[in-house]
Protein 1
Amino acid sequence: MLPAKRSFSSDVCCAVRDTCRLAFNLQNDNDLIRIFGMTGAQLEEIVEKIIDALPDAIFQKNYPPELEEIKCICAREFIFFQVQERLDDPRYQQDLNAFIHLFTRDIEKRVNGRVASVPTTIREEK
Amino acid sequence: MTMTNEQRFEIDFLSRKLKHESAEAVLQTVKSGCEQLKNGQPFASEKAQLDFMRHYAMARDLARLEPYLAQVEIKGLSSEQVRECKLMVSEFEKTSLVRKVSPGLFQAYQAPHETVMQLAAFFEKFNPKPPVNKPTY
């Protein structure tokens, strides 16, 4: 995994925790079990898996504002996905892989749309 | 029009929770929760808040099925229900503080600080604080 991706993944986990503090009164990582059915270590592992699937090129270009936006989108979409799921569900891995596939596709479209100077609001309401 | 495997894959993913819960139950839970939030009322318990969030996330996924309505019938889900999900989610997200500041969430050209604040403002809606009772003297 690219060091930039690992660092980004850590930032996304922070954003998820910060959002959960606000939305779900998260006090510490023990509350993650209540919210997502997973520990802090599991959260970090799964977020790393999601980020690792994103194209390396996103992290090799110098687009800080864009990366900040993608970080927020990652945190938001992870929360909306994981709040519906449970780790011990037999279908979890299959659903996670499907989420990663579609999410990666949408982020690629978003980034490619920006590069082509075409405004895009993938996953946002117009 | 023939559906591609990718489209079928996305439909199956977005509608996956309909195996466990009806679209109508999702809609009712979200409607009821949104009314509560509009009135500034906090949820009765953390469990109730999480339950709302889970159903809101489901409605959000179902709303994303709208582009496929013309091409395929989705078991357990009517076009009307998809449109209702889209309307509820759209209305909810559009009334957030973020929308008053910028036309859309997470615009590419916002400063990093503002983008993080937008995320926080959006999710603050899920945890409304009760009004502070100020003492009168």
Protein 2
Amino acid sequence: MDKKTQQLEALLFVAGEGVSKRELAKILDISEVGLDTLVQQMREELAGRGLALVVTEKDVELTTSPDVREFLAVYLESENEPLSRAGAETLAVVAYKGPLTRYDIDMIRGVDSRRMLRHLIQRGVVRRLAGQGRAPLYDVTEEFLKQLGITRREELPNFGLEAGYESS
Amino acid sequence: MQSQLPLIKLENFEGPFDLLIELARARKVDLAEVSLRDVTDAFLEYLRGVKLAPEVLGDFLIVAATLLLLKVRHLRPQLSKDEEEEVQNLEERVRAYQFFRERALWIRTTWRKQVLLSAGAFAPTRELKFSGELGMDAGTLGGIWGDVIKRMPKPIEKPAHLRQRGRSLRECLALLKERLEQLKSLVFQHVIRDVGRQEAAVTFLAVLELARQGQVQLSQESSGGDLVVERNG
């Protein structure tokens, strides 16, 4: 492991939560593209270990590996605030097709998603991004990935098949 | 001819597409096989029979209108180009919705079942041991602590009858709602400008409660900036 990757690993460990890629790049004094390479390297190094990297477009977080999910589940208090159908539906759209505007989400769901999006943002599983145009975009957070026990959105089942479903 | 209508409770539907898919399933056919036209009658029947909240009624009506177009197309094959587009659009959208509906089911059943954890997620409490590295002994520490205590302001014993009760959460909620009725939106910092700390805190809780109930929207342009409380609807 080269020095920068080592430093990245240490930073993520002490942070104990998601850190933005921008901030990491700044601290490590490298470009964001360079950071992506390091992150990829770290992912490979962590393969088969008890830890993993949860990565979204914006953040990186060091977490336990999906391989030990079942093992750890025993120790978790199941404080289960279950997800409603509408919540799961909205999350599905945002996770598979995000980042996207509220208009696009409404088009797919066929209903107004404003209130649900606010609720999901409050729960920390969706975030709002500035869009290039006037409308803000919505995307899932690393917290969303963690709750599902996956490290990247690409690990969602049937990911990629939604590509054909454009909004009108 | 209309077969027996399946007994499905309308309040359980997440929207018009959800209803369409459920109606098709009730006929035990794949939505791909049965055309939307076959469920149009059932769809309209339900709309007639149920009372929908105004916010969602529009969504259902739009779909109902397109379904009617579908029926018309069957009777009179020549639809205008726009109408044709609308019909195809609906079919595609229902298909797309079905995809996300299935994904949503997976998300719902997998949610929080086996999660990934971050550092310290359930760290056992550690005993705090005095570390010799502090560079001082207990005597010095005790002296410092003595200074700290001397600097602390003495609590002023207010005679009981002078202590102000302060507004309760319920009162703050009522007050806020009243102001919002008149003003539609207000700035939190202005509301608490002339009140004491306790009331400011209770007012803040009231604002959060209103947001939690969905009665207001909160927005803040920048960290520490004006917190705008806007009435919903």
